[in-house]
Amino acid sequence: MSYLGTPIDTTNQFQSLSSKQFNGDGGTTDFTLDIAPGSVNDIEVFVGNVRQDPHSAYTLSGTTLSFTGAPPSGTNNIYVVHQAKSVGTIDPPATETVAKTFSGATTISGALVASSTAQFDTVGIGAAKDLGTGLHIKTGDSGHGAEPHADELVIENNTNGGLTLAMGNSNSATIAFANTNSNEDGKIVYRNTERELRFHTAGTEKMRIDSAGHVTMPNQSAFSAQANAELSNIPTNNSVQTVKLGTEIFDLNADFNTGTYTFTAPVTGKYLLTFSAVLANVDSDATYMVIYIDTSNRNYQDSNTFAINGYSADEPRVEVSQTVVADMDAGDTAKVSVKQWEGTAQMDVQDDTCHFSGYLVC
Fold this sequence. Notes:
362 residues; mainly beta; 4 domains; 6-stranded antiparallel sheet
């Protein structure tokens, strides 16, 4: 059966009936009860041993019982009997099919099986919730707090802990990041079939770690270019000439421009840059010449290593190379430059021997 009304005390039992008596005086209509009933149906009211109609004979406001007409005079001729009601707890059925909403902090111990549309404001599993704004799974007190921008789910332990995603051997486990662009604009995927981990940003894969530990980044900036035209008869007036690197061997992020022979850094970082070339017909009378990697914020001239200064006779073939780790800002450019002072304008940079390459290190 159902028990209606509000609890009178908080003991885990069914309470016994309670009553109250009053003396009528023929004029008083309001009487004060010791207990506030939940409704007019929670009490039985008698006047001269005649039960009163709860729908018309009286009303309730808190502990105030108000008669619609003054009871006659008499000693204890008015009495009120409170209906018995539950003040304990009743275990829910093993299966509940009705939608439930839980408000306030809720702590559930034992196995929690959620179905249908059960709703919780905050939940503690394993112990009382004391971290985060949503679900707190606690198997030990770490003594730490929760990051306020990532506290809808908190997993806590005072020793090793973690989260496991267990899928079939031919299936994938995915953590997706949604925004207005896509439900999975970013995601981390572990593919059990290949046993490899894939990282996606802006909707496409950007990095992969295979089962052997190889890391591939298909969009990581990297390029290699070759000269497509000979740079002949380098002027001797100290003017800077750009080597004509007009043929791409590869360009993963489309950062090399074959029209201007330059590489443009897509992001701020450290770039490994290297070139090699063959110089032909180097004039022995050239007081000084140099070929070098030339960037927006620095040119890497090194007179001790990459300068050619004063041959005793003309040199038909001189092999040169340079490798640097360049600190570049986003938008900085890099190219291979050459210049010469004095002598005869006869030196050439051969087209099929000059290569320039680089990649983003970090």
